[in-house]
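Annotated sample (chain length 105).
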Amino acid sequence: MSSNFADSQGGTLAVALAELEGRLGEVLKEVRRLRALARALEEENQRLRTIMFAEQAGEGGYQQLLRFYEDGFHVCPPHFARVRDSDGCLFCLSFLEKKGLHPHG
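Output written by the structure step:
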């Protein structure tokens, strides 16, 4: 009787271990994906910092926002610093027009 019990427990344990290994593989795959995403976000963050804090002679804050917009980023509060598509953003354009700025193109 203990032999059957051990065999049935061993089979259950083997199945549980196989499931655990499968889940662990999925978790490791997700960790790799998240690491790659984190690296990409860190690079993008550094690029944005470089753009935002670049010294421009005589350039005021609103001029920097205009340059930031023209470099392809949102300047509107809901989407600030996110990459925008080539069509532009009505919120950004409205914000810039209120400040007396007009994007080129």
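Annotation: The mean pLDDT is 81.
Annotation: The chain has two domains: 1-53, 56-105.
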